Amino acid sequence: GDSVITVQLSEEDKVEDDVVFYLVFTGSTVQHCTSTRKINPGSLETISPGHDCCETVKVALCASREGHPVLVVAEESFQFVQDEAYDAAQFLATCAGNQQALNFTRFLDRSRPPAADVDFLDEKVALAFRHLKLPAEWNVLGADQSLTENIPRETLLHFAVRLGLLRLTWFLLQQPGGRGALSIHNNEGATPVSLALERGYQKLHQLLTEEGAREPDSWSTLSHTVHSGDYSVKHHRGLGVYLLTAEA
User: Which region, left, alpha or beta, applies to residue 97 given φ > 0 means left and ψ of -120 to 50 means alpha?
Assistant: First the structure.
């Protein structure tokens, strides 16, 4: 989800300015409708929806004009794939509270990927986390809430801070248990806050310690989502397009 889609119109479809184009994605359990913006008379642009599963869906380009019936201009198939970022987000989500798995992730710290790779990883995994269907009882600290904060242990927040993942850290802070993880020490006595300080991650330390710290730049800062029952509406401020998602 959240990739930019460009639609190229054929000569006969280039029509007057009062025609509104939109895309309808029909999956097995969810349907999405996205508005578009015109780049030029022959090209449209929109955002791909975040889908609930890996499948091929039918996508229809529709045209609407006041006083006229809706016209289906073209139809095509569109494949949603499960990529490495989604796999990583799923793995991390199931790792919450699993000390063996969280200790295993520490090997990434030894490889110290280049800054550009870290930024790419941060953006993709944080975005994938946003599209995961997390259980209602999911918690950053894991399922066993009987553990007290005094027990030294690794948390997902330690993982995100250790690698310098700004966007993922922000996302985790907004989830149940996220703020509570700030004060938890691991076996070396480090908290996520002290880790950020020790590694010289100034922006990350600011994010963890400042009240009202703003979200790092990402797609989510360009969009706003409103949920209502089985429906959600997302407004992408960057492109000025809207996305309506409805569960079938």
Answer: left
